[in-house]
Amino acid sequence: MPDLPKTLEEAIAQAKQATKAAISAGCKRLQIELLYPEIALNAQAIAAQFANLFTDNGVGLKVIFPDTGAAALARRDWGEVPFKVTDLGSRLTSVETKVAPEDEIFLVVCPSAVEVNKIEQLCNLVGDRPVILLIPQLEDVSIVGIGYAARQLRDRFISTLESAYYIRPIEGGAVFRSYPSAWQVWLEKGEKWELIASAPRKPVGDDLDLILAKAMDRDGTKEEINPKSQRRKRGILDNLGQLLKALNQ
Fold it and tell me: I need a labelling partner for 232 at 20 to 30 A (CA). Which of 96, 110, 122, 169 fits?
């Protein structure tokens, strides 16, 4: 069972191993979720590192960006690479044109809720070939529909995605998962981090609040927990800014 990562390099290495394990276990629709605000701005650099997981093994990888501009920028910055780079399509080109018989694995980089219907279409088109969503921004997927339509989307597609790797800092702790391990909740205690709970499903909302509150009460800590806080916690990728800058050099 991997520990909470201390650096971005460690998180990426863990994510690679989790992805390999999930694919070997037969999972076909995966998410790699690093829930930090700065991450999306550096998706291209992280994708370049992550792509090595497949190209080193001679796998027919296709890296897909949400739009033609992002794909063109990646092709310019990366130069000659041993995999194909494209986009999810536009008004003039359909998703169908982005899938070729020789493609074996699809890495979709930083898709947002706006692209969720195209991603679903892609997954339906490629059949049993793995599709990996790298740093997906799907937290606000409800914007693509409300009520019954949104529930249908969650039941039909979003619920089928396996979180191969997930890390999210919260006030007072962190939620973490690395396939095939259970979901974990970590609590900050001074300069250290302690694993306080494991669960078969992602702890969210009231369930997460209760886990944190019980741990704080057990330790006699009176600090109020607010999981919605955006304050970055010390110790979880605390040198993230420097690492992200280094990725772009």
Answer: 110
Q: Which two tokens stand for residue 192?
A: 């250290």
Round to whole Å and give the CA distance between 39 and 133. Answer: 14
Token pair in block for residue 39 = 């991450």
Up-side HSE of residue 43: CA atoms within 13 Å toward CB? 27
Beta bridge partners of 184: 176, 198
Q: Which amino acid is at 50?
A: F
Taking only the tens place, the pLDDT of each residue in 172-181 is 789 999 999 9
In this prediction, residue 111 has a pLDDT band, given cuts at 50, 70 and 90, of very high
- Would strands 173-178 and 183-189 be described as parallel, antiparallel, or unpaired? antiparallel
Query: How far is residue 64's CA from residue 198's CA, in Å, rounded to a whole number?
Result: 34
pTM of the predicted model as reported, rounded to 2 decimal places: 0.85
Give yes or no for a contact between 11 and 237, defined as CB atoms under 8 angstroms apart: yes
